[in-house]
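Design request, tokens follow.
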């Protein structure tokens, strides 16, 4: 008898928003509102991908909706969070993104969150519930800050983003993953 395999589904994205201030990097942490799942939990920007929506577009939309921020640079991380969802009997895969904002940008919280804090990576990780989110912070540090060549390969293009905004100023779009350098394939 064959064992039934769990489904692999992609329903959410996570975005590790950071800023550089006074010579150090600070990550944005958001605290969930009461009356929502995991009330009071701290997390990075996390949100659902809409049907037919590309992950990078979902990431940009979620950052805008949850924080009011418009990041100046984006990276699609090599790392992906994978976990088992027992309720759905599914394996979930979350694409991870990093987004840099200006040092003086102000956060405008949505109703989904009641508080925010800009913290160094270790302090941010101490607030997170999930080990996977601490690994996400480590992935940003390893893939964006520690290895400049890798960071250049993972950075999403900004040229396409600027031209999209000029043509549709009311609907800013995330950088297209098609503008980034191809990754070497194992083989």
């Amino acid at each position: 008898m064959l064992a039934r395999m769990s489904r692999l589904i992609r329903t959410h994205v996570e975005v590790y928003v950071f800023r550089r201030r006074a010579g150090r990097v600070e990550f944005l942490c958001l605290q969930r509102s009461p009356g929502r799942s995991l009330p009071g939990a701290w997390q990075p920007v996390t949100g659902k991908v809409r049907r037919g929506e590309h992950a990078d577009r979902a990431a940009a939309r979620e950052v805008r909706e949850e924080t009011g921020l418009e990041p100046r640079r984006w990276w699609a991380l090599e790392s992906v969070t994978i976990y088992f969802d027992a309720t759905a009997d599914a394996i979930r895969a979350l694409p991870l993104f990093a987004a840099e904002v200006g040092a003086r940008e102000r956060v405008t919280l949505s109703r989904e969150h009641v508080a925010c804090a800009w913290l160094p990576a270790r302090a941010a990780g101490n607030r997170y519930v999930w080990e996977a989110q601490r690994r996400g912070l480590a992935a940003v540090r390893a893939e964006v800050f520690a290895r400049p060549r890798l960071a250049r390969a993972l950075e999403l293009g900004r040229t396409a983003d600027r031209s999209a905004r000029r043509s549709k100023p009311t609907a800013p779009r995330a950088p297209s993953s098609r503008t980034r350098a191809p990754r070497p394939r194992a083989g």
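Comment from the thread starter after seeing the answer: thanks! The helical segments are 55-67, 121-127, 131-145, 148-154, 159-167.
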